[in-house]
Each structure stands twice: as C-alpha cells, then as structure tokens.
Design brief:
It contains 15 helices and 5 strands. Strands 2-3-4-1-5 form a 5-stranded parallel β-sheet, sandwiched between helices. Strand 3, helix 9 and strand 4 form a beta-alpha-beta unit. The longest helix is centred in the first third of the chain and has 20 residues. The radius of gyration is 24 Å and the shape is flat.
C-alpha cells in the first residue's frame, strides 16, 4: 500500500478529517491536499517525511496503548453524586473538598455526562478572578461572543440559567477569591439552580470562617446546604478499581499492596498510573497484570531501585 493510499484511507474511514490529520502530522492542510491529489509543487519529502514519522509513531502507540477504564463507580463517587443531587434538587450550594487524587473530578465529570443541564468549569491561577470565572461559565453555557465586562457577563449568565433547574460545578474552586465566590452566591440565589464548589480543604476552611458573623464570608457560609469532606480513598474504592482492571480482589497480598498505594493522598491517581504501566508491560508480554508488574511500575514511576 502506497503512502498516499494509507493517508487517503484514514480520511475516508472518517477517523480524521483532512484538516485534523494535517494538524497531527504537522503540515499545511492545503499542502497535504495538493499532495494527496498528486499536484504538490514542492519537494515531496517535505510532506512525506513527517507523514512517515507520524504513521510510525501511531503504530508504536497502537502496539503498547492500554486504555484505562473510563469511569469506575467507586463508593467515593456515590458520595459526590449524593452531594450534587442535593445541590440540584433543593437547590442550594454545596462543597465537596479534601485530598487530591481521590476521584472528585472524575465523579463530577461522570455526573455531567449522565445528567441534563449540568455545566462544569475549572478554576485555576490564571482563571480565578471574578471576570475570568464568569467568562469561563458563560462559554460553558454556550453564550457566544461573551463580553468581558463583569456586569454584562453576570446578567447574561442569570438569563441563561433561569428556569433550567440545572447544576453548575466549579472544580478547583479553592483558587477563587472572595468577590468571585460572593458573585456566585448571588447568581445562585437569583436563578435558583444548584452550585457545587469542588476543591481541596481550602474551599471549606475559607468559607467556614463565616461562622463568625463579623467575617466577610458569613453570608456565603450560611447559604451552604451541605459540606462533603473526602479525606482519603476507601478500601471499597480500591476494590472496585482492582475489579475494573480485571484483578482478583480476593488476593490478599495484591490487595494489601493496592490499599497501601491507593489510600494515601493522591492515591487513586497514582494507582491508576501504576496499573496502566503494568498493563502496558503485560500486553507486551501477552500476559495478565501481576503484583510483580505493579510493583515494578511503581518503582519506575517513583524512581525507586
């Protein structure tokens, strides 16, 4: 099969558009089109060399790629779901906070995918100001050509949310300053939809300062309908993950190791990385994932000997 035929077949299969393929390969879309039609006037090597490199890389990825289970319904996820349900049904504001790498974000993403009128945005150091977070929410709500002025953004968001009986999830909300949180409170009360603030302990600790009525967070604290702390992953979480990867959850030695990894801070994220690397090795050996492969993966990723 010629190189041109391979590329044409990829496009005709619907896996990639011509423009997408050009971006992935790193060539101009027009040049790729001309080359495919045997009308390219430049040096053929300038197109064919990057195509060959991309095809070779793709082949290597296919040989070793192992896809992790998309979403695993662990007990911690159900705790998150219950809080999100409460936020939406009442409607009210809720917090879900605690250690990183315990599945909070994955659970929120799954909730959004399986429920209508759920919108999810992520705050960050670069997207934490009042105007920035309102702009992110406007884009998530599908407000085209969202303005940058805070007052106009707020009014458009209110108009879009009213009557939806929906839920807004703000991940990494520990980055948000007081004025952004206060504006979110005002919007929530005006439109009567649920809002969920997801993040680390700072989310709760800052807002909890509002128990002092002189504190600026007092009005916000009094509006929180439920606070859900998730300090660490449970053994039930680890068991569900092990079974999703096809491992024997009755193997005590295996589960002791998995629990020692997964119940630490950030443990679920680390455990998934180790399992995926072990699965790649197992695939290359045409074998099942074993405890030895998991331990080897852990050493490779942590720099152990």
């Amino acid at each position: 099969m010629t190189l041109r035929t391979q590329v044409s077949d990829l496009i005709q299969s619907g896996k990639y558009t011509q423009a997408e393929l050009a971006r992935k390969i790193g060539v101009n879309s027009g040049a790729l089109s001309a080359w495919l039609n045997d009308k390219y006037k430049g040096k053929a090597e300038s197109i064919e060399t990057p195509i060959k490199h991309w095809l070779e890389l793709n082949e290597r990825k296919t040989k070793i790629f192992v896809e992790a289970p998309n979403f695993i319904n662990i007990p911690t996820a159900n705790k998150v779901f219950n809080s999100l349900d409460m936020a939406r049904v009442l409607p009210t504001m809720v917090t879900v906070y605690g250690a990183s790498g315990v599945g909070k974000t994955k659970a929120c993403q799954a909730y959004r995918e399986n429920n209508p009128n759920v919108w999810m945005i992520t705050a960050s150091p670069a997207r934490a100001t009042l105007s920035s977070i309102l702009y992110e929410l406007a884009l998530e709500l599908g407000i085209n050509d969202a303005p940058r002025r805070k007052d106009r953004l707020s009014r458009l968001i209110v108009k879009k949310l009213k009557g939806t009986q929906g839920l807004v999830i703000i991940d990494e909300s520990d980055h948000l300053p007081y004025d952004a949180l206060e504006e979110i409170r005002i919007i929530q009360e005006e439109v009567e939809v649920g809002f969920a603030l997801i993040g680390n302990d700072k989310v709760y600790n800052r807002i909890q300062g509002g128990v002092n009525q002189a504190h600026e967070f007092a009005r916000l604290w009094s509006r929180i309908g439920k606070n859900t702390p998730i300090k660490a992953s449970s053994k039930g979480d680890i068991k569900a993950i092990a079974e999703a990867w096809g491992l024997d959850s009755d193997d005590k030695d295996l589960m002791n190791v998995l629990n020692s990894i997964g119940t630490k801070a950030g443990g679920l994220r680390a455990l998934t990385q180790y399992l995926r690397l072990a699965a790649i090795t197992a695939k290359g050996q045409d074998s099942a994932i074993t405890l030895d492969l998991i331990l080897t993966a852990q050493k490779q990723m942590t720099g152990g000997n």
